[in-house]
Amino acid sequence: MREMIMDGPAQINQRRRFTVADLWRMAQLPEYADRHFELIEGELREMAPVGELHGSLASLINRLLGNYVDEQGMGRVTIETGYYELDDDETLLAPDVAFRRLDAKGNPPTNSFVMQMPDLAVEVKSPRDTYAHMRRKAELYLQRGTQIVWLVYPERRGVEVCTLDEAGAIVLDFIDEAGSLSGGDALPGFVLAVSRLFS
What we know:
This protein has helices spanning 20-27, 52-72, 131-143, 195-198; strands spanning 2-5, 37-40, 43-48, 75-78, 97-101, 120-124, 148-153, 158-164, 170-175, 180-182, 191-193. By secondary structure, the protein is α+β, with helices and mostly antiparallel strands. The longest helix is centred in the first third of the chain and has 21 residues, at 52-72. Residues 1-13 have low confidence and may be disordered.
């Protein structure tokens, strides 16, 4: 799903800051049953449906990550699931694909939003997204605990890998079809040839 600034019914179209709790309450109401939102620093954004290319790329990445994670027993892969940090109740992100390590107890999934950012987040760029917006989202993930973000750019046939350096500044590394993606410390041993995404 891609985002657009919320401009809907009067009940939620008030200029105020929203919280994760507000969003959870909305998600339980029948009038919002078929609508999807993210929350970025208190601003509610509705997620619009995506095109086939976007959906195909997200589905392929989800399948490849999921297969590897299942084989290794390393954690859980999700799609469009809400993640937030417990100490930040004004930002909830729903990556196209995400991976999160599980502790030794292997806690079962719940029906609620995840109270922890994923270790790896994947966002696929839609035609209406800007590069600046994509990179800002990557920053939001990384500043809240995500170790690595993949920004998939279909029109450039490549992926921008986003991490933080020791000083907390974002580092961007563009990988084209000749290169491969690594799961890094977030997902050790996982390697994906970028050409596989765009073949």
